[in-house]
Amino acid sequence: MASASLLKSSPVLDKSEFVKGQSLLRQPSASVRCTIPSLTVRASSYADELVKTAKTVASKGRGILAMDESNATCGKRLASIGLENTEANRQAYRTLLVTAPGLGQYISGAILFEETLYQSTVDGKKMVDVLVEQNIVPGIKVDKGLVPLAGSNDESWCQGLDGLASRSAAYYQQGARFAKWRTVVSIPNGPSALAVKEAAWGLARYAAISQDNGLVPIVEPEILLDGEHGIDRTFEVAQKVWAEVFFYLAENNVMFEGILLKPSMVTPGAECKDRATPEQVADYTLKLLRRRIPPAVPGIMAMLHLDDIELCLSLVKYESWDHFRKRVSCLVDNPSRSYSNLNAMNQAPNPWHVSFSYARALVTLSQDMGRSPGERAAAREALLIRAKANSLAQLGKYTAEGESEEAKKGMFVKGYSY
């Protein structure tokens, strides 16, 4: 099985990738003239706007609202409260989110599904306009989902490059300013060298196309939690994946100042019996970021798959964030635990600006949606409470007092798709 030996046998840079058929034999120095080609990293005419957008999304005290679930997944949420999966009901659910008063205090960007980008609220106002009025940058999910990767160990690849340029241009015209493309790497299934390269190349092409059309790409090679592997194996795979990603980003002339990253936290597999301590998770994750992420990148949104109550406590040991150029956001999949962990990271200065992004933590909000005005108001209040808690945690001011039992439940789902 092409698996555990991957990283030991497959170097990051294979000379065959850049020698391009030339002989590897040393030639006599007297007869050789070395010509160093000029390198041009470009982001079309949108360069300044891309940098500004990336910095805005990674702004202090705010984070991302990821409401890009597909219509099918949104339908499952609606079914849980006895509602049909119709466009009108999806519209009502999404209206509930974007019209929450004061949401822009805590949310800097919202990732939308394509239907939502072109949708209006139940009151007839474009959802994009509602977001912009709250100083929230609209984003868009641009991938077309995961499909089986032929020739691999039952692994997947992310489709959606065909027609991406024209779609991205249209998304920009509609008001989107950043993009999301999610591909995954499975440790139990290898990962095979083919799957890692496919993930990295797809992300790089997506990023280049997005920048060419004015969209800041969120680069997200998600290393799935599924598996019994230990933290060392996760770290090994993560190093390989991110090295490949940045190699191909550079090959595709992607401007690093105009991207955002979403690396997974380095943890053991969800089914591993040996759980890591918060200090171990912090140490491994910081080592990964320092070894693989260039300082030009303005925003890192580290995905927190949280099983430990005080994850990453040791991230608070570093110098003033004013001295550093990177900004970090944390994907929050478990509300109460995540607030505490994020808060711990911000109790003292550290190398990165640590913020947050809601993802599946929104799942339970649909259950509060209801049909009456009172139930809808309660759902909005729940959204704002969670967003504010994350904002306070980012500022190092969060306390867990008064948290509900619902907020303390884990969000990991084996084999999750959306």
TrEMBL record:
Signal sequence annotation: none
PROSITE patterns linked to this entry: ALDOLASE_CLASS_I
Pathway the protein takes part in: Carbohydrate degradation; glycolysis; D-glyceraldehyde 3-phosphate and glycerone phosphate from D-glucose: step 4/4
Source taxon at top rank: Eukaryota
Reactions listed under catalytic activity: beta-D-fructose 1,6-bisphosphate = D-glyceraldehyde 3-phosphate + dihydroxyacetone phosphate
Entry-linked Gene3D superfamilies: Aldolase class I
Keywords: Glycolysis, Lyase, Schiff base
E.C. code: 4.1.2.13
Protein name, per record: Fructose-bisphosphate aldolase
Organism of provenance: Rehmannia glutinosa
